[in-house]
Each structure stands twice: as C-alpha cells, then as structure tokens.
C-alpha cells in the first residue's frame, strides 16, 4: 500500500510540475515587473505584445523631449578639473559668458557674485540686498544652466568690504574716532569681523548660494584693514579677529555639502583654520614657491589655487583659474 501511495504521489507531483511549467510559458506575456517584483496583468507585457518573444518598437522621441545629462567632473580638485573665473564685469553680458563656457566644457567656474560696494549680481532674497545694475535674471539663468550641465560652481563673495551693508548697519562697520564710518582709498566701507550681525549676514549669503547649486564659496577681502584712522578697541589683534571669523564660518558649514574657502594676496592668512581652498590672486610666477612654502604646512587646507591672468609656464604645475574672457 505504501509503494502504491508513493507511486501515485510521484505521478501527481510530476503532473503538477508539467502543468506549472506550461502555465508559466502561457502566462509569461501577461507578467509585468517593477521595483516590487513580478505581477500578473490581464494585458500582455508591452515588451512582448504578441507573445512571440519579439520586442516591440520603441516610440519615437523628438529632440525636444530628450534631457541630456552632462558627465560630472571626475574630481573636485582644481588641479585636475581646470577652469576659469568670471568677474562682475563679465557678468554684464551673461550670454557671452555662457557661449564661452559652452566651448570650455565642464570644469571649475568661479563667479564673482557681489561687488565690494555690496551689490549682488544675482537675484538674492536676503533682506535688504541691493542688486547690481545688471540683468540679474539672466545671471540666474546662467547659474542654473551651469549647475545642470556638470560645472563645479564656486562663488566669490567679498566679506568685510561691503558699503551697502555698512550703511544699513553702521554699528557693524569700522568707525573713525569722530563716529563716522572709515572708508578705504576706493571709497568702500568695511565691516567688523567680530560683529555677530556681520557673521550672520555672511552665513546667509553662503547658505543661499549653496541652495543655488554652488559647491563652494570663496570669501575675499577677508581681513582687518591696516589703518591708524580706524577707531577700534579690542584685546585681540586684527589678525586674531580674522582668524576667529574664519574659524566660525568653517565650523558652521562643517559636515555640509558646501566648502568654505578664502582668498588672500599675502602669506599671513590663518590657513590653519581653513579646511577648504586658499585662493591667491594676481601674483607673478616668481612668487609661486613663496606662497607654496607659506601654506604648505597647513594640513587641513584642501588646495592652493592661483587666480592669474598670466601665461607663465611656472603656473602649469599648479592649480590655476584664469579669466574666461579678455577684459
């Protein structure tokens, strides 16, 4: 009896396997697949509409429907990416800038987006922000295009030289003994690096630029002016105040997707507190080693970058950004 039972059971199982295989073959055209697995549908799979195993022709797609994703740069090092810088003067013709960058291809692009007088060259939403006399909407479109096409975006922002903010917030500016605001030889007012109001302002700018697609913000004019006319009382020196401000900005954005960098033209910048890049502007090739030695011991520094309008071959082995257009 046991042998008969096992024989019948074997026949039934074999029959079930044959029937199951036949059903799978028959139902294959009706099976669809997605992220949740396989599903049975009363409609045939569009990839095999007649159940013959042939693949259906794909629908025609016009050029207007295609979205092209530009290849992202394979490195975040300026030395590897190469690139250019765009001045506020160049941004007066955003179309020319875009045309030149299309020829350049994906690379690092530094945009000067605020003047030392405090005018913004993009449509800033920061309270009280004064817009420059340019087509800021066109600059916005340029920024969006660069962000969408794989360019490594860097914004340069003057930090403590800002006439508009100083006039709107005189208590946060550097004064004369008379109480009036101190002005440099270019007619610009300067801000107090120790002012909480100033630091909040700089953080707001950096956060806004990050939301616009910028990967890095470079603060230029990041120093305490050397002038005996400034009436300022502090236990700390101007260099120490600058270092504290640099440390605060670096720490505030630590762990975010935004790199905080600084620009200088001398060898006294407190690079030890900088985890981003240090940009050196307008130096000749004979001074390359001087800056390399001055900042070579800054272990946290990501990279030393030269902003030059020189074809000196001594820059070829360094990270360099040159102007996009001839001024």
From TrEMBL:
* Annotated transmembrane regions: 5-27
User: Which Pfam family, an example, fits this chain?
Assistant: DUF4015
Q: Which GO terms describe its molecular function?
A: hydrolase activity
| InterPro entries for the chain | DUF4015
Q: Which UniProt keywords apply?
A: Hydrolase, Membrane, Transmembrane, Transmembrane helix
Q: Which residues form the DUF4015 domain?
A: 83-254
Protein name in UniProt = Glycoside hydrolase
Q: What is the taxonomic lineage of the source species?
A: Bacteria, Bacillati, Bacillota, Clostridia, Eubacteriales
């Amino acid at each position: 009896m046991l042998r008969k039972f096992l024989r019948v059971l074997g026949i039934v199982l074999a029959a079930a396997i044959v029937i199951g295989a036949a059903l799978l073959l028959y139902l294959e055209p009706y099976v669809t697949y997605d992220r949740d697995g396989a599903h049975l549908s009363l409609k045939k799979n569009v990839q095999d509409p007649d159940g013959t195993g042939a693949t259906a022709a794909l629908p025609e797609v016009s050029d207007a429907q295609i979205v092209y994703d530009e290849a992202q740069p394979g490195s975040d090092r300026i030395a590897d990416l190469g690139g250019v810088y765009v001045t506020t003067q160049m941004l007066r013709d955003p179309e020319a800038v875009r045309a030149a960058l299309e020829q350049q291809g994906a690379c690092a692009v530094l945009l000067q987006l605020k003047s030392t007088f405090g005018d913004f060259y993009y449509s800033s939403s920061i309270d009280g922000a004064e817009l420059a006399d340019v087509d800021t909407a066109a600059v916005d479109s340029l920024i969006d295009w660069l962000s969408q096409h794989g360019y490594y975006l860097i914004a340069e922002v003057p930090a403590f030289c800002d006439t508009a903010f100083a006039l709107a917030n005189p208590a946060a500016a550097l004064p004369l003994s008379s109480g009036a605001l101190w002005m440099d030889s270019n007619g610009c007012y300067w801000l107090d690096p120790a002012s909480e109001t100033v630091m909040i302002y700089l953080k707001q700018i950096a956060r806004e630029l990050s939301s616009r697609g910028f990967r890095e913000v470079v603060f230029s004019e990041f120093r305490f002016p050397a002038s005996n006319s400034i009436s300022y009382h502090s236990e700390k020196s101007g260099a120490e105040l600058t270092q504290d401000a640099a440390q605060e900005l670096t720490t505030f954005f630590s762990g975010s997707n935004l790199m905080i960098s600084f620009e200088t033209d001398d060898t006294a910048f407190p690079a030890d507190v900088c985890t981003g890049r240090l940009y050196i502007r307008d130096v000749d090739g004979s001074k390359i080693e001087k800056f390399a030695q001055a900042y070579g011991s800054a272990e946290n520094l990501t990279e030393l970058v030269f902003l030059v309008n020189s074809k000196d071959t001594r820059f070829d082995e360094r990270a360099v950004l040159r102007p996009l257009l001839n001024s």
